[in-house]
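User: Hi! I have a protein structure encoded as tokens and I'd like to know what sequence might fold into it. I'm fairly new to this, so please keep things simple.
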């Protein structure tokens, strides 16, 4: 919040007349929430209020029954506020922060300016809303994202161990490339001084703890797949070659309510599998993948695509055609991952198992 801006708390509510069109922009943070309100196309006020959902619901309770919209950006505070506002009968949208219009010359920035911009853009329908998950959907998705977080930590510790060995001129034991149990046991036995032994054992203990956490998380995902909510969809997705329990549950929890996607491009953009296109006249260039989407889901789809082309001759033929057209195996496998995502989406929305192409 910029200095000199109004910091009134305990606001008594919005007073509007019947027929007024009200748009509210919120800049939500951990300690406070900055709000801007526009009535019939005119900004009327900005203020700061406590971040508690109950206080915000009480503030805007007077909007029930009138044309209104409340918007805020998706962020670290989650969707609890949106669910609370909806339960109170208020119209709320959570918008994608990465797709909010950004002027070339942004100028000053503050919480008050941000909430005013959100209200203005919402009034002109320039914002892209995201789906608001239920508490159960968000909780299940958090489990699959925990697996992604643990994998990153495992990768970091392994890099630290290899850097440690290189720094102190210690030979890597055989099998360390795949981190076999024998290679890890050899690290436990390698002869180093007392202080280095303490450091290496600490790294190995952390690796062991993270490996156990990863196994527990994956076991939890398999338990989740047996719930009534996911049972049928998980069985349908696993009928596709290359798709196992982890990929299917990650897809179901990340692409929750798949029927909300109206087109294939919307789905693939959400999965982070759409290339950046630059076109001018007859010249068209496809660059790297656009920023955004779920990186963990994209990585799993790419891994599953490799398995798919190894099991399905028709998928292998399609992959080889993409390699010839693009000249790069990386682009080709991303193209197969895009096709895989579309297959899974079609299968789960139609309730149909995978049908192999006819020879």
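Assistant: Happy to help. Inverse folding works backwards from shape to sequence: for each of the 359 positions I chose a residue that suits the local structure. Here it is:
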């Amino acid at each position: 919040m910029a200095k000199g801006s109004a910091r009134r708390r305990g606001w008594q509510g919005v007073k509007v007349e019947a027929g007024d069109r009200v748009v509210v922009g919120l800049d939500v943070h951990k300690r406070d929430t900055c709000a801007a309100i526009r009535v019939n196309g005119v900004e009327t006020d900005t203020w700061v209020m406590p971040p508690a959902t109950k206080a915000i619901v009480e503030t805007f309770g007077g909007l029930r029954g009138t044309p209104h919209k409340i918007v805020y950006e998706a962020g670290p505070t989650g969707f609890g506020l949106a669910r609370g506002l909806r339960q109170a009968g208020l119209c709320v949208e959570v918008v994608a922060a990465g797709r909010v219009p950004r002027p070339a010359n942004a100028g000053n920035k503050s919480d008050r300016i941000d909430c005013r911009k959100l209200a203005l853009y919402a009034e002109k329908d320039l914002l892209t809303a995201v789906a608001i998950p239920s508490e159960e959907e968000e909780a299940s998705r958090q489990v699959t994202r925990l697996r992604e977080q643990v994998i990153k930590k495992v990768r970091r510790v392994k890099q630290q161990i290899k850097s440690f060995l290189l720094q102190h001129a210690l030979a890597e034991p055989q099998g360390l490339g795949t981190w076999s149990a024998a290679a890890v046991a050899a690290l436990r036995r390698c002869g180093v001084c007392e202080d280095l032994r303490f450091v290496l054992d600490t790294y190995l203990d952390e690796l062991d703890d993270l490996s156990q956490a990863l196994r527990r998380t994956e076991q939890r995902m398999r338990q989740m797949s047996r719930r009534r909510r996911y049972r049928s969809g998980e069985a349908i997705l696993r009928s596709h070659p290359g798709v196992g329990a982890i990929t299917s549950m990650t897809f179901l929890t990340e692409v929750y309510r798949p029927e909300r996607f109206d087109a294939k491009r919307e789905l693939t953009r959400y999965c982070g599998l759409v290339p950046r296109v630059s076109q001018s006249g007859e010249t068209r260039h496809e660059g790297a993948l656009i920023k955004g989407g779920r990186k963990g889901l994209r990585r799993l789809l790419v891994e599953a695509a490799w398995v798919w082309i190894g099991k399905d001759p028709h998928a292998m033929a399609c992959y080889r055609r993409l390699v010839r057209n693009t000249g790069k195996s990386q682009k080709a496998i991303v193209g197969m991952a895009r096709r895989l995502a579309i297959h899974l989406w079609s299968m789960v929305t139609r309730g149909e198992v995978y049908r192999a192409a006819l020879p």
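A useful reference point when you look it over: Strands lie at 22-28, 33-39, 42-49, 68-73, 92-95, 129-130, 275-280, 283-289. Feel free to ask if any position seems puzzling.
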